[in-house]
Amino acid sequence: MPFTLLTQGTVTQPATAVIQTIPLPSGCDYFKLTNLTQMALSGTVCVGGEWAGGGLFADNNGIRWRKAGTHAILIDNFTTSTATNGFTYVTKYPDPEAAVTGTTITNASPAVCSATNTYSEGDTVVIYNAVGMQQISGMYFTISTVTGSAFTLLGLDASGFSASATAFTVRRVASAARVQPQSYYITKISQAASAVVTLSQAHTYVVGQAVELTIPGSCGMVQFNNYYQPQSKPPVITAVGTYTITLNVNSTGYTAFALPASSASPTAQLFPTVASAGQQATYNTISGVQTGYNFLGVPFHSGLFVPYMKIGLSASGTGAAGAANDVLLWQAYKMETGTINSPVPS
Question: Fewer CB within 10 Å, N- or C-terminus of the chain?
Answer without folding.
Answer: C
